[in-house]
């Protein structure tokens, strides 16, 4: 079995209005495309921006509160919309999907927690996802106002999947901060997305902590970033040693170095990214097919370990028949 552990479904109004790509993914299209490539199951969650932000700022890529809001509760609309789509609109696909809900650790966390308790009475979900960079919502708020999400993760025995960064300009999702929080909360399972941008010190910390994993979401364009020494990748003196001209080789090396902590994920549809940044067009373009191809170039034992065995250990499903 191949489980893709990192996928967005729905629409991102911020990305659409600001002119960034991608900004949407259709649930059925994802399953049909990925299924044709040999993917069997998908961990899915909404896109990043939420309707409790001031949408009037989205045209200029400004994250503001108040103003034009469709809801006061972050992700109340997005989480329910995703689960309704899976379980009510397309129940034939539901057995192949493992939905996670999204949260914002800074804005109105108590109301989010109340909404999640109501939502959990209506639909099952299997984890908690955060992408705090785009929201400009410091992950360190899990220590204070956002601590309720750690409490829910412990109460419901759900893992957390958190966008991670090592770029100095990213004040909100530093991999080292996430690892500090994971170390302080051994009762909660954490996955750090994007291979910690290949930062070896962070990957080694994941390997040492009993409650942490990492995924390699958007792997091929991250390899391209490493080849070109782009600023979102760990600098060479901190970078995990591999041949980044060959994404399949990097998967093999990561799987050998971190045999029980590495989970495979595509980050669909963010295996491609295109946007205008500082008046220049940045294009990092890949395909779902290339992501799967890089995985499958490895021996079957490696594929099974990083695309199923490790993911099952991270999920710790109470009912394993969900994946039958």
Automatic annotation (TrEMBL):
Show the InterPro entries listed in the entry.
Amidohydro-rel (IPR006680), Metal_Hydrolase (IPR032466)
> Domain of life of the organism in this record?
Bacteria
Task: Extract the coiled-coil ranges from the record.
Answer: none
| Gene3D superfamilies, A to Z | Metal-dependent hydrolases
- Leader sequence segment: none
Which residue numbers delimit the Amidohydrolase-related domain?
A: 3-315
Q: What is the protein name given in its UniProt record?
A: Amidohydrolase-related domain-containing protein
Q: What is the originating organism of this protein? A: Prosthecobacter algae
Lineage of source species: Bacteria, Pseudomonadati, Verrucomicrobiota, Verrucomicrobiia, Verrucomicrobiales
